[in-house]
Design brief:
single chain, about 750 residues, alpha/beta, Alpha-Beta Plaits, DHBP synthase, Nucleotidyltransferase, domain 5, 4 domains, 12-stranded mixed β-sheet, 7-stranded mixed β-sheet, about 25% strand, binds zinc ion, binds fe (iii) ion
């Protein structure tokens, strides 16, 4: 099938023969399209069969001109246009050059060579960098990007460094954070109160020693602190969980090299590319089955995926090389606060968690978490967008005349601001549920405003009356527009795929405030500029106990059974282990309609079914029950699905899932494995999407919202839509979850008339 990919490459890609190289490669592979230079980097649009495009992408990276260097490589799959040849287009004249704040870039090969060369003056120096690599976003105070405007400003260059820095022929010519052991920052190992125990390379060696002894290390990394411990050591990982009060949420891992990853996980070419990319994110990889794993199950609790990254800074490289074993590398924070970025916070917040601290004296100005991605059907899927990606802009039309502040959602918040058509979507900020996160939220807005000298003309926020993000925009005294949450998800997907009309938005997540004041979450939305029609939704049910049902998902399970069977639900004993004796109370709450808000949430339906099938009845974090339901489906290869009906109610189509619950109950009684039920349930939702697209007559179907982080659901829906002649579109550069909301809010502003 013919496809089109849009590629944006930033880095040293101008004046090094990049365009002729791309032209030759494209012609050789019979790829049509164009390439253009802009002040921001190189833009390519390429059309061909998918296989050829994959080769094209990998050969750009492997065969690029000698003096070029890629600092960021982003691709987005778009509708084809039918190009007839490949051409080099004239460079874009954009008046004044807009300098961009670059993300933090992983250590380049040349620098790595020096770090591990005993004859080099930067041998084992953990702050080695050059023009092609090193910290950026995390250390920049202001533009222009000069050393004085970074946290390296306080380190005076030695003569040798200065000679490199001022020599146009040197790799470190104007490498703003350049440093060496003589003049640059240094590391030290301290105890949990800040007493220095070892310095310089001894600090690293002793950090290695304590990790091997099963201790927990707080490491000051690039965009903040990480907590490290030996990933094979059950007791150490257990202790970290206990101290961090994180019961079952999977921990990310850092491996010392690719070979050791290949032992633990199945890794395809695209995943390998991502692991080794300049962005160096955490990649979700399928864990190998039936091997003697070196990873403690305490790290992931039966999760079939491992979140793995490779070392990306010199300090990580040196530490991991000495260690030679995989470690847990989780965020250095407490209870959903932003990660710590300075010693002052770290010793207070992490002092009770870590035994030792590997710190240094290069300041971090803002928190930038490790990004998380996965490959789904060959494409990148963004789960958390931060280090390596933020704050690079996405481009959007029809917003040029205004500066818009998008306040984002409440959980997994990001904000966005535009300058002309460049939309700066912030790094992942997190859940706005504590003072630290809210302060970080304000700082992130200020950062982007300061970098690009922006003064927002309007603010766009969520409709939810209690969202802190929405309240914050009140304080700005500028016109404020509210966008319904699920419409913002759809708009975000439209923005990425450059679509404006004639689309059906399938917007499924856990929670969002609906225009009728109820909780939505299983929506079929037909966009119409700054308005939309709720063309369909999941038949509603109630959440007894409101918010508490998100953890006690058995309550949702009971509510679903109660909707279908009424009081007879009591006779079904699937929820007994979790429910009794509270079950009676829940029943009364439902009967009398006490504290039982109505919802059409797809995510909560997942939770409830997870509980009914006995997979998970108490969740320790949001969406855990739904995720475990997904994972059990993995072992079952079936096309079966449950029968369901689509009702009509007041001009909307309502997905009636009652029959599904009946069938699930029958399956359970007949001893059908929960995993098979789960697979059938997932398949049913994919059929639902197809049927809705048929009934509502839309060819283009957008899949967005947190539920589409579900790998099984996303793949199944894409597959079934393609098989039945529809065109599925997914989120690519921003998360399908609430991290993508801010982009949708900016898109909303493009439809406003001023
Ligand atoms: Zn370098
Ligand atoms: Zn120096
Ligand atoms: Fe959402």
């Amino acid at each position: 099938m013919l496809q089109k990919v849009k590629i944006v490459i930033r880095g040293v890609v101008q004046g090094v023969g990049f365009r002729p190289f791309i032209y030759r490669l494209a012609t050789q592979l019979n790829i049509k399209g164009w390439i253009i230079n802009s002040s921001q980097g190189v833009f390519i649009e390429a059309e061909a069969e998918r296989e050829l495009l994959d080769i094209f992408i990998s050969r750009i990276k492997s065969d690029k001109p000698k003096n070029s260097y890629i600092q960021s490589f982003e691709n987005t799959w778009l509708d084809t246009e039918g190009f007839s040849n490949f051409e080099i287009r004239n460079s874009l004249e954009e008046g004044s050059k807009t300098a961009l704040v670059l993300p933090d870039i992983s250590t380049c090969k040349d620098c790595l060579g020096e770090i591990f060369d005993p004859a080099n003056r930067r041998y084992l120096y953990p702050f080695t960098n050059c023009t092609n690599c090193g910290p950026r976003f995390s250390i920049i105070d202001d533009l222009p990007y000069d050393r004085a405007n970074t946290t390296m400003g306080e380190f005076e260059m030695c003569d040798e460094c200065r000679a490199e820095y001022t020599n146009p022929l040197d790799r470190r010519f104007h490498a703003e954070p350049t440093a060496c052991p003589v003049c640059g920052p240094q590391v030290s190992l301290t105890d949990e109160t800040g007493n220095i125990l070892f310095e310089k390379h001894d600090a690293v060696l002793n950090a290695v020693k304590v990790i091997k002894e099963g201790k927990i290390l707080a490491l000051k990394g690039i965009g903040g602190y990480q907590l490290l411990c030996d990933a094979s050591n059950d007791a150490a990982v257990k202790e970290l969980r206990k101290r961090k009060r994180r019961s079952e949420k999977p921990f990310a891992l850092m491996f010392h090299d690719l070979e050791s990853i290949l032992i633990e996980a199945d890794v395809n070419e695209a995943e390998k590319g991502l692991l080794l990319s300049v962005e160096a994110p955490i990649v979700l990889l399928k864990r190998k089955k039936g091997i003697a794993s070196g990873i403690s199950d305490e790290c992931i609790f039966g999760n079939p995926y491992l979140g793995i990254m490779l070392p990306y800074s010199p300090l990580h490289h040196i530490l991991m090389k000495e260690l030679g074993i995989p470690v847990v590398a989780t965020s250095g924070n407490i209870s959903e606060e932003p990660i710590c970025i300075n010693e002052e916070q770290a010793y207070i917040k992490l002092g009770d968690i870590a035994d030792y601290f590997l710190v240094h004296n290069r300041k971090i100005l803002r928190h930038v978490d490790d990004s998380i991605l996965r490959i789904s059907a060959g494409n990148e899927v963004m789960i958390r967008r931060a280090r390596g990606y933020a704050p690079l802009p996405l481009v959007l039309e029809n917003i040029e005349n205004n500066t818009i502040l998008a306040a984002g959602a409440h959980l997994k918040n990001t904000i966005a601001l535009n300058k002309g058509s460049n939309v700066f979507v912030s790094q992942h900020i997190g859940d706005l549920e504590n003072t630290e996160s809210i302060n970080a939220y304000k700082n992130v807005i200020n950062d982007i405003k300061t970098f690009y000298e922006l003064k927002p003309d309007i603010a766009v926020c969520d409709m939810h009356p209690d969202y802190i993000s929405a309240k914050f925009s009140d304080s700005l005294n500028i016109p404020k527009y509210k966008v319904q949450h699920h419409y913002a998800h759809v708009l975000s997907c439209m923005a990425e795929n450059r679509l404006d009309e004639n689309v059906l938005g399938v917007s499924w997540d856990g929670t969002g405030y609906g225009t009728d004041g109820t909780i939505w979450g299983g929506e079929f939305i037909v966009p119409n500029g700054n308005e939309f029609k709720r063309a369909g939704y999941f038949k509603t049910f109630r959440l007894p106990g409101g918010e508490s049902a998100i953890q006690d998902v058995w309550k949702i399970g009971y509510s679903l059974l109660y909707e279908v069977f009424g009081k007879e639900a009591d006779k079904l004993d699937f929820l007994q282990p979790a429910g009794q004796p509270e079950m009676k109370i829940i029943q009364q709450m439902l009967e009398k309609n006490i504290n039982s808000p109505v919802t059409s949430s797809c995510g909560r339906l997942f939770d409830g079914i997870s509980a009914i099938t006995g997979i998970k009845q108490h969740a320790s974090f949001e969406a855990q029950a739904a995720m475990e339901l997904e994972f059990t489906a993995d072992d079952f290869n079936t096309n079966d699905y449950f029968a369901f009906s689509i009702d009509e109610f007041k001009g909307s189509l309502v997905f009636n899932w009652h029959n599904i619950i009946r069938d699930i109950v029958n399956d359970l009684k007949a001893g059908v494995p929960a995993g098979l039920i789960s697979a059938k349930f997932h398949n049913t939702l994919a059929e639902l999407i197809v049927q809705m697209a048929e009934r509502l007559r839309f060819e283009k179907v957008l899949l967005t919202g947190g539920c589409f982080m579900n790998y099984y659901l996303l793949n199944r829906a894409v597959k079934r839509l393609q098989e039945t002649g529809f065109k599925p579109y997914t989120q690519q550069r921003v998360p399908a979850g609430d991290g993508g909301i801010s982009l949708g809010q900016i898109k909303y502003a493009s439809y406003l008339k001023f």
